[in-house]
Amino acid sequence: MLILQSPAKVNLVLEIINKRDDGYHEIKSVMQTIGLHDMIRFEEAQDIELNCTVPQLQKEDNLVMGAARLLRQVSGCQRGSRIKLDKKIPWSAGLGGGSSNAAITLIGLNRLWGLNYPEQKLAGIGSRLGSDIPFFIYGGTCFAEGRGEKITPLPDIKPVWFVFIKPDIPELAKKTTKLYGMMQPVNYSDGSHATRMQEMVANGEKLTPASLFNAFDYIVFKAYPELVRYWGPFHRCGAGKLHLAGSGPAIFSLEEDEAKANEIKQKLVEQGIEAIVVPSAKRGAI
Protein backbone atom coordinates (compact mmCIF):
# COMPACT_ATOMS: atom_id res chain seq x y z
CA MET A 1 0.00 0.00 0.00
CA LEU A 2 1.12 3.56 -0.79
CA ILE A 3 -0.34 6.71 0.81
CA LEU A 4 0.42 10.17 -0.61
CA GLN A 5 -0.66 13.73 0.09
CA SER A 6 -2.37 15.61 -2.74
CA PRO A 7 -1.86 19.36 -2.11
CA ALA A 8 -3.93 22.39 -3.07
CA LYS A 9 -2.40 25.43 -4.77
CA VAL A 10 -2.69 29.16 -5.22
CA ASN A 11 -1.65 31.29 -8.16
CA LEU A 12 0.64 33.90 -6.66
CA VAL A 13 0.53 35.52 -10.08
CA LEU A 14 -1.82 34.71 -12.96
CA GLU A 15 -1.43 36.82 -16.09
CA ILE A 16 -3.30 36.30 -19.34
CA ILE A 17 -1.12 37.36 -22.25
CA ASN A 18 -3.38 36.75 -25.26
CA LYS A 19 -5.77 34.31 -26.90
CA ARG A 20 -4.04 31.69 -28.99
CA ASP A 21 -5.03 30.38 -32.42
CA ASP A 22 -5.89 26.99 -30.87
CA GLY A 23 -8.57 28.59 -28.68
CA TYR A 24 -6.56 28.43 -25.45
CA HIS A 25 -5.16 31.49 -23.71
CA GLU A 26 -1.44 32.13 -23.31
CA ILE A 27 -0.65 32.67 -19.64
CA LYS A 28 2.26 33.37 -17.34
CA SER A 29 1.82 32.30 -13.76
CA VAL A 30 3.72 31.64 -10.56
CA MET A 31 2.04 28.78 -8.71
CA GLN A 32 2.49 27.62 -5.14
CA THR A 33 1.44 24.46 -3.31
CA ILE A 34 -0.02 25.02 0.15
CA GLY A 35 -0.45 23.07 3.37
CA LEU A 36 -3.97 21.89 2.58
CA HIS A 37 -4.24 18.45 1.04
CA ASP A 38 -6.29 15.40 0.21
CA MET A 39 -4.96 11.93 0.96
CA ILE A 40 -4.79 9.23 -1.71
CA ARG A 41 -4.16 5.56 -0.93
CA PHE A 42 -3.05 3.11 -3.63
CA GLU A 43 -3.31 -0.69 -3.38
CA GLU A 44 -2.64 -3.39 -5.93
CA ALA A 45 -5.80 -4.67 -7.64
CA GLN A 46 -6.90 -6.47 -10.78
CA ASP A 47 -8.44 -3.35 -12.33
CA ILE A 48 -8.59 0.38 -11.66
CA GLU A 49 -11.12 1.25 -8.95
CA LEU A 50 -11.90 4.56 -7.25
CA ASN A 51 -13.45 5.04 -3.82
CA CYS A 52 -13.98 8.71 -2.90
CA THR A 53 -15.21 10.12 0.41
CA VAL A 54 -17.32 12.64 -1.55
CA PRO A 55 -20.01 10.60 -3.36
CA GLN A 56 -20.67 13.19 -6.08
CA LEU A 57 -17.01 13.04 -7.10
CA GLN A 58 -16.94 9.27 -7.43
CA LYS A 59 -17.55 9.27 -11.18
CA GLU A 60 -15.99 7.64 -14.21
CA ASP A 61 -14.88 11.06 -15.48
CA ASN A 62 -13.02 11.88 -12.24
CA LEU A 63 -9.49 12.96 -13.22
CA VAL A 64 -8.08 10.25 -10.96
CA MET A 65 -9.63 7.60 -13.19
CA GLY A 66 -8.52 9.45 -16.32
CA ALA A 67 -4.93 9.69 -15.07
CA ALA A 68 -4.76 6.03 -14.06
CA ARG A 69 -6.16 4.82 -17.37
CA LEU A 70 -3.93 7.11 -19.41
CA LEU A 71 -0.80 5.99 -17.54
CA ARG A 72 -1.69 2.36 -18.11
CA GLN A 73 -2.32 3.05 -21.80
CA VAL A 74 0.95 4.94 -22.29
CA SER A 75 3.06 2.44 -20.35
CA GLY A 76 1.39 -0.74 -21.59
CA CYS A 77 1.21 -1.87 -17.97
CA GLN A 78 -1.56 -4.38 -17.29
CA ARG A 79 -1.68 -3.90 -13.51
CA GLY A 80 -4.49 -2.18 -11.65
CA SER A 81 -5.03 -0.31 -8.42
CA ARG A 82 -7.69 0.24 -5.81
CA ILE A 83 -7.55 4.00 -5.18
CA LYS A 84 -9.04 5.62 -2.07
CA LEU A 85 -9.44 9.41 -2.29
CA ASP A 86 -10.04 11.21 1.00
CA LYS A 87 -11.14 14.73 0.07
CA LYS A 88 -10.24 17.69 2.28
CA ILE A 89 -9.64 20.36 -0.39
CA PRO A 90 -12.86 22.22 -1.28
CA TRP A 91 -13.74 21.25 -4.84
CA SER A 92 -14.69 23.66 -7.65
CA ALA A 93 -13.06 26.41 -5.60
CA GLY A 94 -10.01 27.36 -7.70
CA LEU A 95 -7.57 25.48 -5.46
CA GLY A 96 -6.66 22.85 -8.04
CA GLY A 97 -7.85 19.80 -6.10
CA GLY A 98 -8.86 17.77 -9.14
CA SER A 99 -5.65 18.49 -11.03
CA SER A 100 -3.63 17.69 -7.92
CA ASN A 101 -5.45 14.38 -7.50
CA ALA A 102 -4.65 13.46 -11.10
CA ALA A 103 -0.98 14.38 -10.73
CA ILE A 104 -0.57 12.46 -7.48
CA THR A 105 -2.29 9.48 -9.11
CA LEU A 106 0.36 9.55 -11.84
CA ILE A 107 3.11 9.79 -9.20
CA GLY A 108 1.59 7.08 -7.02
CA LEU A 109 0.96 4.57 -9.78
CA ASN A 110 4.38 5.28 -11.29
CA ARG A 111 5.81 4.04 -7.98
CA LEU A 112 3.30 1.25 -7.36
CA TRP A 113 3.72 -0.21 -10.83
CA GLY A 114 7.51 0.25 -10.87
CA LEU A 115 7.51 2.32 -14.06
CA ASN A 116 10.25 4.69 -12.85
CA TYR A 117 9.22 7.47 -15.20
CA PRO A 118 10.97 10.81 -14.47
CA GLU A 119 8.98 13.90 -13.51
CA GLN A 120 9.28 15.36 -16.99
CA LYS A 121 7.61 12.34 -18.59
CA LEU A 122 4.83 12.29 -15.98
CA ALA A 123 4.25 16.01 -16.54
CA GLY A 124 3.94 15.39 -20.28
CA ILE A 125 1.38 12.65 -19.68
CA GLY A 126 -0.52 14.89 -17.28
CA SER A 127 -0.64 17.77 -19.76
CA ARG A 128 -2.87 15.63 -21.96
CA LEU A 129 -5.53 15.69 -19.23
CA GLY A 130 -5.32 19.24 -17.89
CA SER A 131 -3.15 22.35 -17.93
CA ASP A 132 -2.57 22.50 -14.14
CA ILE A 133 -1.59 18.84 -13.75
CA PRO A 134 2.10 19.24 -14.74
CA PHE A 135 2.58 21.82 -11.98
CA PHE A 136 1.48 19.35 -9.32
CA ILE A 137 3.99 16.78 -10.57
CA TYR A 138 6.71 19.20 -9.39
CA GLY A 139 4.97 21.11 -6.57
CA GLY A 140 6.46 23.85 -4.42
CA THR A 141 6.93 27.12 -6.27
CA CYS A 142 6.93 27.03 -10.07
CA PHE A 143 6.71 29.32 -13.07
CA ALA A 144 4.08 28.22 -15.60
CA GLU A 145 3.60 29.41 -19.16
CA GLY A 146 1.96 28.33 -22.40
CA ARG A 147 -1.56 27.29 -21.42
CA GLY A 148 -0.07 26.47 -18.01
CA GLU A 149 1.58 23.17 -18.89
CA LYS A 150 5.16 24.44 -19.37
CA ILE A 151 6.71 24.31 -15.91
CA THR A 152 9.95 25.70 -14.52
CA PRO A 153 10.59 24.88 -10.82
CA LEU A 154 11.70 27.82 -8.68
CA PRO A 155 13.35 27.95 -5.24
CA ASP A 156 11.06 27.56 -2.23
CA ILE A 157 9.61 30.85 -1.02
CA LYS A 158 10.04 32.11 2.51
CA PRO A 159 7.07 30.89 4.61
CA VAL A 160 3.83 32.85 4.35
CA TRP A 161 0.26 32.11 5.43
CA PHE A 162 -2.96 32.25 3.48
CA VAL A 163 -6.43 32.94 4.87
CA PHE A 164 -9.08 31.34 2.66
CA ILE A 165 -12.85 31.67 2.38
CA LYS A 166 -14.86 29.23 0.26
CA PRO A 167 -18.04 31.29 -0.26
CA ASP A 168 -21.38 29.53 -0.02
CA ILE A 169 -22.55 30.53 -3.49
CA PRO A 170 -23.95 28.56 -6.45
CA GLU A 171 -21.40 26.65 -8.50
CA LEU A 172 -20.59 28.23 -11.85
CA ALA A 173 -20.86 25.57 -14.55
CA LYS A 174 -17.84 25.42 -16.90
CA LYS A 175 -16.43 28.26 -14.83
CA THR A 176 -12.94 28.46 -16.33
CA THR A 177 -14.32 28.63 -19.86
CA LYS A 178 -16.81 31.29 -18.79
CA LEU A 179 -14.20 33.37 -16.97
CA TYR A 180 -11.86 33.35 -19.95
CA GLY A 181 -14.84 34.29 -22.11
CA MET A 182 -15.42 37.37 -19.94
CA MET A 183 -11.86 38.59 -20.39
CA GLN A 184 -11.29 41.52 -22.74
CA PRO A 185 -8.00 42.56 -24.36
CA VAL A 186 -7.77 45.37 -21.79
CA ASN A 187 -7.44 42.65 -19.12
CA TYR A 188 -4.44 41.08 -20.84
CA SER A 189 -0.95 41.93 -19.59
CA ASP A 190 2.65 41.58 -20.68
CA GLY A 191 4.01 39.07 -18.15
CA SER A 192 5.82 41.67 -16.06
CA HIS A 193 4.01 40.67 -12.84
CA ALA A 194 5.20 37.07 -13.28
CA THR A 195 8.72 38.23 -14.12
CA ARG A 196 8.86 40.38 -10.99
CA MET A 197 7.59 37.49 -8.85
CA GLN A 198 10.23 35.18 -10.33
CA GLU A 199 12.89 37.73 -9.39
CA MET A 200 11.58 38.01 -5.84
CA VAL A 201 11.60 34.25 -5.41
CA ALA A 202 15.06 33.86 -6.95
CA ASN A 203 16.44 36.58 -4.66
CA GLY A 204 14.88 35.07 -1.54
CA GLU A 205 12.67 38.11 -0.92
CA LYS A 206 9.65 37.64 1.32
CA LEU A 207 6.37 37.95 -0.55
CA THR A 208 3.95 40.72 0.32
CA PRO A 209 0.24 41.13 -0.49
CA ALA A 210 1.16 43.82 -3.03
CA SER A 211 3.30 41.38 -5.03
CA LEU A 212 0.35 39.11 -5.93
CA PHE A 213 -1.72 39.44 -9.11
CA ASN A 214 -4.64 37.60 -10.71
CA ALA A 215 -6.16 38.80 -13.98
CA PHE A 216 -9.51 37.33 -12.93
CA ASP A 217 -9.65 39.78 -10.00
CA TYR A 218 -10.77 42.42 -12.49
CA ILE A 219 -13.94 40.53 -13.43
CA VAL A 220 -14.53 38.83 -10.10
CA PHE A 221 -17.89 40.47 -9.32
CA LYS A 222 -19.10 40.03 -12.88
CA ALA A 223 -18.34 36.32 -12.62
CA TYR A 224 -19.44 35.89 -9.00
CA PRO A 225 -21.81 38.74 -7.98
CA GLU A 226 -22.59 36.98 -4.69
CA LEU A 227 -18.98 37.51 -3.56
CA VAL A 228 -19.91 41.06 -2.54
CA ARG A 229 -21.32 39.56 0.67
CA TYR A 230 -17.89 38.20 1.61
CA TRP A 231 -15.39 40.70 0.18
CA GLY A 232 -16.26 43.58 2.53
CA PRO A 233 -16.33 41.54 5.76
CA PHE A 234 -13.00 39.93 4.82
CA HIS A 235 -11.39 43.37 4.47
CA ARG A 236 -12.94 44.65 7.69
CA CYS A 237 -11.42 41.73 9.60
CA GLY A 238 -7.97 43.15 8.89
CA ALA A 239 -7.00 41.37 5.67
CA GLY A 240 -4.88 43.16 3.13
CA LYS A 241 -5.45 42.93 -0.60
CA LEU A 242 -7.81 40.08 -1.52
CA HIS A 243 -7.46 37.82 -4.53
CA LEU A 244 -9.47 35.17 -6.29
CA ALA A 245 -7.91 31.73 -5.86
CA GLY A 246 -7.25 30.67 -9.44
CA SER A 247 -10.62 30.76 -11.16
CA GLY A 248 -12.45 30.94 -7.82
CA PRO A 249 -14.81 31.33 -6.20
CA ALA A 250 -12.53 30.87 -3.15
CA ILE A 251 -10.85 34.13 -2.12
CA PHE A 252 -7.77 34.64 0.01
CA SER A 253 -5.35 37.06 1.58
CA LEU A 254 -1.63 36.53 2.02
CA GLU A 255 -0.30 37.29 5.48
CA GLU A 256 3.36 37.47 6.45
CA ASP A 257 2.59 36.66 10.10
CA GLU A 258 0.86 33.46 11.26
CA ALA A 259 -0.67 35.13 14.32
CA LYS A 260 -2.20 37.86 12.14
CA ALA A 261 -3.63 35.22 9.80
CA ASN A 262 -5.26 33.37 12.68
CA GLU A 263 -6.64 36.63 14.09
CA ILE A 264 -8.34 37.38 10.76
CA LYS A 265 -9.71 33.86 10.61
CA GLN A 266 -11.15 34.13 14.12
CA LYS A 267 -12.91 37.41 13.30
CA LEU A 268 -14.44 35.83 10.20
CA VAL A 269 -15.61 32.79 12.16
CA GLU A 270 -17.22 35.08 14.74
CA GLN A 271 -19.31 36.52 11.89
CA GLY A 272 -20.42 33.06 10.82
CA ILE A 273 -18.04 32.92 7.83
CA GLU A 274 -16.08 29.68 7.54
CA ALA A 275 -12.37 30.33 6.99
CA ILE A 276 -9.12 28.40 7.13
CA VAL A 277 -5.45 29.34 7.54
CA VAL A 278 -2.81 27.33 5.68
CA PRO A 279 0.95 27.83 5.17
CA SER A 280 2.91 27.75 1.95
CA ALA A 281 4.45 24.33 1.24
CA LYS A 282 7.91 23.38 0.05
CA ARG A 283 8.67 21.27 -2.98
CA GLY A 284 9.20 17.58 -2.28
CA ALA A 285 6.57 17.40 0.48
CA ILE A 286 4.92 14.36 -1.14
The number of distinct structural domains comes to: 2
Query: Briefly, what CATH class of the largest domain?
Result: Alpha Beta
What's the average pLDDT?
94
**Distance N to C terminus:** 15 Å
Biggest sheet overview: 7 strands, mixed
- If you compute it from the alpha carbons, what radius of gyration comes out, rounded to the nearest whole angstrom? 19 Å
Helix and strand content put the structural class at alpha+beta
- Architecture (CATH level 2) name of the largest domain: 2-Layer Sandwich
Q: Uncertain runs with pLDDT below 50, 5 residues or more?
A: none
**Element order, helices and strands?**
EEEHEHHHEEEHHEHHEEHE
Count of beta strands:
11
List the helices and strands and how they pair.
Elements: E1 2-19, E2 25-45, E3 48-52, H1 63-75, E4 80-86, H2 97-112, H3 119-127, H4 133-138, E5 141-146, E6 150-153, E7 161-165, H5 175-182, H6 192-202, E8 213-214, H7 220-223, H8 228-236, E9 242-244, E10 251-255, H9 258-270, E11 275-279
Parallel strand pairs: 1-8, 3-4
Antiparallel strand pairs: 1-2, 2-4, 2-5, 5-6, 7-10, 7-11, 9-10
Helix pairs in contact: 1-2, 2-3
